[in-house]
Design a protein that fits this description.
Length: about 400
């Protein structure tokens, strides 16, 4: 199973070859898997491999023992090495390993500051990523702490995690690469239909109280997780676009927990006026939510809206993974912060300022949160004034 996963990540998601440079960001807890991945990468001829290793327990100790000012003035979270490899056109593989509750005792301002520094010290990487100029992929890897948190009553939580990961990532099929190619081809049909509708506005509603209206930019495009020839998230079951950040109105309720820098936010809502979050609350993690919203002047505006069927494989597993990578692919979601250049027609011929003028948000952050439910209704107002239901009972009905 692990061999199939490695082949899927390198050969299909990133499409690396012997001429590629490979940048791997991972947690030390997953070193054994990374060793196997490196061995395979060398076997296919990759010579330049950079390992960006993180240690969550060491990060916890650093945050615990340093003040905000000391964190700000330290190079501990400096990620400028990402820019060096972005200059080379490297392929970036980010192996996500959640460690629930490890940061529960760390001040939320320290969490927010460390995340801000990480993102803000790799501007070239973010620019080239947003423009689709480098191959990149975020993928999940199980670990004992995460597995025990998800499967608390299991005798073998890691085995259960890998079993579910296998189904969700199609590793249980004879040829996962062919299986993903077939799925992504079906996604392209839905993307085509959405683009042909020329949608002006989207209205979301459900029984939780969500009553939200998004306006889409002129020249907007819907996209799937296949960016160019790459798969940027593994797994990925979403179809997404970027709304015009200036015109969001109404209220939206979360339907799944959000784990941000290993801190949990649960049962929260956001109220928007003139595009901006003007009020919010959360039963758990309100201070962390505040940190996200106030990251910069534009983190309180939306950058993404994504459609995911309620009957997606992750949703049908009935598991809340407490990881955005998984949970956003079990549920329709929105994102606070920066939007996507590729969601505007001919964006490669436009400047950043021109894209922003069309309504694409630019921020130092991009945080997805889950809003999908079994009774989610999404209605579209098209530019010709026609009303079309695009999601009913939680599933796309195009």
């Amino acid at each position: 199973m692990k061999e199939k996963y490695i082949e899927l990540l390198l050969n299909r998601c990133l499409k690396v070859d012997s001429d590629s440079t490979l940048f791997i960001n991972y947690n030390v807890i997953n070193k054994d898997f990374v060793d196997e991945l490196i061995e395979y990468a060398k076997k296919i001829g990759i010579k330049d491999i950079y390992l960006d290793e993180e240690n969550t327990n060491a990060i916890h100790e650093f945050l615990e023992n340093n003040s905000l000012e000391e964190i700000k003035n330290s190079d501990y979270f400096n990620s400028s090495i990402w820019d060096e490899y972005a200059k080379k056109g490297s392929a970036f593989l980010m192996l996500n390993a959640e460690m629930p509750h490890v940061m529960d005792d760390i001040d939320s301002e320290k969490i927010s500051l460390s995340a801000f520094i990480k993102r803000n010290t790799k501007p070239l990487y973010k620019e080239r990523q947003l423009k689709g100029e480098i191959p990149w992929c975020i993928a999940a890897l199980p670990n004992e702490l995460w597995a025990k948190d998800i499967f608390p009553n299991s005798e073998n939580p890691m085995e259960d995690f890998w079993h579910n990961l296998s189904k969700i990532c199609m590793l249980d099929t004879e040829n996962p690469i062919e299986s993903w190619n077939a799925f992504l081809n079906s996604q392209k049909e839905s993307v085509k239909k959405l683009n042909e509708l020329n949608i002006k506005k989207l209205h979301y509603s459900n029984s939780l109280g969500t009553n939200l209206t998004l306006t889409l930019p002129d020249d907007v495009l819907w996209c799937s997780a296949e960016e160019g020839n790459y798969i940027v998230n593994m797994p990925s079951y979403e179809i997404f676009t970027s709304p015009d950040y200036r015109y969001t109105e109404g209220i939206v309720y979360s339907t799944k927990p959000l784990l941000y820098s290993n801190r949990l936010i649960e049962d929260f809502w956001l109220k928007f006026k003139n595009g901006k979050v003007v009020d919010y609350d959360a039963k758990i993690g309100k201070d962390i939510l505040k940190g996200i919203i106030s990251t910069d002047d534009y983190s309180c505006f939306l950058g993404e809206c994504a459609l995911v069927n309620y009957n997606s494989p992750i949703s049908e597993s009935n598991i809340i993974f407490k990881s955005t990578l998984f949970d956003e692919n079990a549920s329709c979601h929105l994102a606070l912060g920066t939007g996507f250049n590729e969601c505007i027609k001919n964006s490669k011929n436009l400047t950043k300022e021109e894209i922003n003028e069309k309504g694409i948000n630019y921020s130092k952050t991009h945080i997805d949160f889950m809003i999908g439910s079994r009774d989610m209704l999404i209605e579209a107002e098209c530019k010709d004034k026609k009303m079309v239901t695009i999601m009913q009972d939680g599933n796309i009905v195009l």
